[in-house]
Amino acid sequence: MTKESDKASFKAPHMAVDIAGVRFKNPVMTASGTFGYGLEFSNLMDLNSIGGIVVKGLSTAPIKGNPPPRVYETPSGMLNAIGWQNIGATEFVARKLPVLMNYDTNVIVNIVGFELDDYLEVTRFLNDCPGIKALELNISCPNVKKGGFHFNKDPKDTYTITAETKKASPRLPLWVKLSPNVTDIAEFAKACEDAGADALSVINTFVGMAIDVEKRRPRLRFMTGGLSGPAIRPIAVRMVYEASRAVKIPVIGIGGIASTEDALEFLIAGARAVQVGTANFYQPDISQRIALGLQEYCRLRHIEDINELVGSLQPYE
Amino acid sequence: MTKESDKASFKAPHMAVDIAGVRFKNPVMTASGTFGYGLEFSNLMDLNSIGGIVVKGLSTAPIKGNPPPRVYETPSGMLNAIGWQNIGATEFVARKLPVLMNYDTNVIVNIVGFELDDYLEVTRFLNDCPGIKALELNISCPNVKKGGFHFNKDPKDTYTITAETKKASPRLPLWVKLSPNVTDIAEFAKACEDAGADALSVINTFVGMAIDVEKRRPRLRFMTGGLSGPAIRPIAVRMVYEASRAVKIPVIGIGGIASTEDALEFLIAGARAVQVGTANFYQPDISQRIALGLQEYCRLRHIEDINELVGSLQPYE
Amino acid sequence: MLDKKVKVKAIRELGADNYLLTVNTPEQARLVRPGQFVMLKCVEDLAENPLLRRPFTIFDIHRSSRSGKPAGLDLLIKDVGVGTRKLVQTRPGQLLDCLGPQGHGFQVAAEMRNRVQLAYLVAGGVGIAPLFLLAQSLLTHGIRPVLFYGGASAADLVLRENFERLGIECVYTTEDGSFGERALVTQPLAQYIRSYRGKNIRMYGCGPWGMMKAVHLLSIENDIQCEVSLEARMGCSLGACLGCVVQTRDSRGEEQYLRVCQDGPVMNSRLINWNTVPL
Amino acid sequence: MLDKKVKVKAIRELGADNYLLTVNTPEQARLVRPGQFVMLKCVEDLAENPLLRRPFTIFDIHRSSRSGKPAGLDLLIKDVGVGTRKLVQTRPGQLLDCLGPQGHGFQVAAEMRNRVQLAYLVAGGVGIAPLFLLAQSLLTHGIRPVLFYGGASAADLVLRENFERLGIECVYTTEDGSFGERALVTQPLAQYIRSYRGKNIRMYGCGPWGMMKAVHLLSIENDIQCEVSLEARMGCSLGACLGCVVQTRDSRGEEQYLRVCQDGPVMNSRLINWNTVPL
Ligand SMILES: Cc1cc2nc3c(=O)[nH]c(=O)nc-3n(C[C@H](O)[C@H](O)[C@H](O)COP(=O)(O)OP(=O)(O)OC[C@H]3O[C@@H](n4cnc5c(N)ncnc54)[C@H](O)[C@@H]3O)c2cc1C
Ligand SMILES: Cc1cc2nc3c(=O)[nH]c(=O)nc-3n(C[C@H](O)[C@H](O)[C@H](O)COP(=O)(O)OP(=O)(O)OC[C@H]3O[C@@H](n4cnc5c(N)ncnc54)[C@H](O)[C@@H]3O)c2cc1C
Ligand SMILES: Cc1cc2nc3c(=O)[nH]c(=O)nc-3n(C[C@H](O)[C@H](O)[C@H](O)COP(=O)(O)O)c2cc1C
Ligand SMILES: Cc1cc2nc3c(=O)[nH]c(=O)nc-3n(C[C@H](O)[C@H](O)[C@H](O)COP(=O)(O)O)c2cc1C
Ligand code: FES
Ligand code: FES
Question: How large is the ipTM?
């Protein structure tokens, strides 16, 4: 061991990452819809400990959501069909955001809509709100009958909505959250980049279904739901690998992250940052633990800057 | 309870299903690649107890396969990248098939190839072999660099290979095994039906990846692998539901089946039969148990014919 | 609300797949109000199935035999599936993840004293769980609880001695007649309501959806305030996932989905749209 | 090969995360040949993670203290991950799924008697497991085993007393010098090979890939027949999944993938392409 690396072991590793000009103190965020408006977790962990919070998908006006049952547990995963229930962007900005702004973490707003105009309206409104660091365009939620999901079936539509939304958010960086229910994620990643997206969130949930074999009815009232949790992680890691190699903009890795090691898989595969989703439900302080765990991983291995890990996968020859 | 249903409880339920004119004594089969050539399990269960055995994917000449490591376990699932290692169709027909024919169960051969001609060659050869009840065209295995998988990226290619292979197997029914790594499974299902496929096997594995975060290397030498096991079941059930509603030919449900209840989910969703895969590895007699379990389910509920269950899902209004 | 690793103190089989689980957790025990619940999971690998924690009502506060101070929680757990099976197979000394107390409990307020005379507590099976702390609280407020407790069979009427020991009137029904009256619990309940007409009464229920709907209808017919404790599949119990909702109607008849974990589990029965499909 | 639900008879901690697990299973015990293994999983819900069973070499046949007949299996288990952790936490009386005995063991044949004088047994860590039944078998055939047993530290050299009790020569090495020679196990091995040149010797090894490769190279240099027991991630152990392969070269130099579960785990070291990446 050289003297440099000995010294390095005493220096705290550099944990901050940059996503489209916004600094995150570390690459750990919580995923939209799995962390409410953030404040629900403030008694259970230190919200200042993580890089960012992506709040529940917001529309301009409140949305009621789907009838229950809305969730069902499956092997190492869960299905949900919440259906965009949210308090509306106005209410969020009036009541939740001011409290969230007391914390030293980045607030990102996930935006949802049924038609292009819905997206543009909420985007224009949020673009002017101080305290928000970026917008995450959700065109990949499978749980509404008529909704943004149809923008994620053909890369041309993905291009259009991204380009239009980008125009509507001149101030805020625009992230696009992609669906894994596609033949080629790289194609969609490229369409977003070409349309001016500032970053990509990869991935949203898989469309799944479970059946009550006694009643012969779907377990979810909405019939299908989005599959999340550790079950989908191997597919998510692969998609992050493919997407991050297809574009130059940063990719944020999502899907089944429940430990430091899981988060590392995504970073090494090519993600600049990660979002923790379903695991928040069963271990409410898991995002804080992962943020600490990443720091510890770097420290023990003399990695001075976490950015060194990003995309550092060594394929076999 | 009427007298009829009381009597029914004493009659053994009708368990046989028909797939493209071939009778299966019950709707339970073992999935290709997870049950070897069948004989590996003959000491551990009664091969006569199940409807059919789909043997490991065969090419005309033997294939060496991918370098190890080839398998890795993930939450409620596993990744594999075997790479089509097989003894070749000639060897299979000479040495394995004669022994398999001593059992009272249907033998289905899964066929693999790199180019269209490879598929046609092995199809022509097997079409003439007595003792085989159907061919399952595998264009959905993600674990070879150059290989049939590219036929499952665009429905037009799926149509072409199905139509050509169908011509090469005038005697044997042709099943097409579909990939779940697509935007719209119904589109591929329809392409197969239009091209003359006799049945569909839904689904093969998802492309996934896992990373050793100490070595920063893929866990599999091939980098990516196919994700199978209970983790993927909710997605598989949804795809079977969609595919079976898009076509008139029978759909065979595959993906994470490990219990009677799991098999029932697929039947109720629309599958005429099911294949058990990964579960064979950790519970070698599971297919026999499921065959018995389905019978018991029908008996207890006075279901006289298992075909009544197929596609019997009651969606909410 | 706290998230603690708590130790199993005792686990007692009650019959008919029911168990009484006692966990040590003084801090959490001190915070409990009647009708609240905790989220439990065996502490093993975080990756164990089932992933999600499971909700259980707090049956009673376990008190230190020496000081009489709150020392832990008594939970009634019925083994109905994979998560509950793991919990009832725990042994003393084992650690559980325990989040809570959670949720909005029963409304028993000081101003009810002298105004309310009687409270009908209606339980079906493990629905008995929230009613024991409630009964104690009612007694403290000078209100007389009467328990209506129904089950399929005698063995389902677990922990009834605890209520009898409080000295309150208990009415039992079973579907097979093996204990108490052979009836649905709503039958004697309806009789009592008829006989005590004129009194200021409250109703509190916990049990299967169908039973609660019947209880609600009785409360409407007889113009009695009624609170029910609801069940729902839960993701988080924190109000974050919106997975646990129940369909409700506000005073203006507006449909709205409320969260059982935070807006409930106890709700005024009039809020609920009873024509929906339960979990 | 049988698939049985077997009962844990005893579990003994050996230090350094190693455990000796004894299971009752007379039918399986009767079939065992040195170098074979079983596939184990805790019998709980089939859906528990990890899904796949785990392979463990049969260390010894447990014999009935009364009749002396095979009654069960002794297995050495090192806790290295989620599957092994569950197994070492089992308690006597608990049931395990046990498939086996599986695989192709060591070649010790009657015709080796009188022709082979010495057998060098080389173990790294838990690689000791297959060598105990082998040592016993060699002794039966009149061949003198010498054990070379290496580990990081003294604590890793578990179960060495069992070999000492057989009265055989044991050479120990540790990386930290805490026991035996501070060396890699191949160092004394090389010395022995040099001193006993001319004898008809066999080598048998089990341990990490790097150690086995070094053992193999010594065997080539000195023209000694050498068998090694390999490790691989396994899906089925039945030869069906083709997940457990190792890259080999046949006599004509043809590359071929052989299954560790059925064509191994014990293979002639010359078959193996040692320039590949182990699991
Ligand atoms: C606020 C609240 C308080 C509860 N209090 C108690 C209690 O004190 N004692 C007790 O035994 N049970 C109580 N339950 C029910 C208990 O949470 C479920 O029985 C448990 O979650 C089932 O988990 P499982 O893994 O064993 O069942 P699963 O294998 O998931 O399912 C088995 C069966 O249980 C039903 N079930 C699953 N989840 C729930 C759920 N969240 N609520 C109700 N039913 C469910 C399913 O519909 C299914 O029929 C309560 C539920 C809620 C919402
Ligand atoms: C034929 C054979 C015989 C074996 N005999 C013994 C024995 O007698 N005693 C013993 O303690 N172990 C033995 N092993 C190794 C043992 O099977 C693994 O340690 C075990 O499977 C790890 O499971 P896990 O879930 O605890 O580890 P995981 O959490 O899956 O992985 C933890 C670590 O173990 C390694 N590992 C995982 N699977 C295997 C595997 N199949 N083989 C080798 N390493 C693996 C991984 O690379 C990783 O470093 C044997 C393996 C084989 C193939
Ligand atoms: C209950 C629930 C609600 C969700 N709501 C949203 C949402 O509003 N907007 C969105 O973009 N993603 C939503 N998601 C998807 C998650 O943000 C995340 O992409 C997905 O769950 C995969 O990550 P995970 O496996 O870590 O949960 C939701 C997921 C769950 C489980
Ligand atoms: C080790 C392994 C090998 C496989 N080989 C083949 C194959 O040769 N041909 C094929 O069509 N599918 C193959 N499959 C896919 C399975 O047949 C099945 O479609 C898939 O595993 C999903 O089912 P499961 O979740 O029940 O395992 C293989 C799967 C595994 C796990
Ligand atoms: S359980 Fe998540 S909001 Fe109620
Ligand atoms: S473990 Fe399946 S072939 Fe060896």
Answer: 0.96
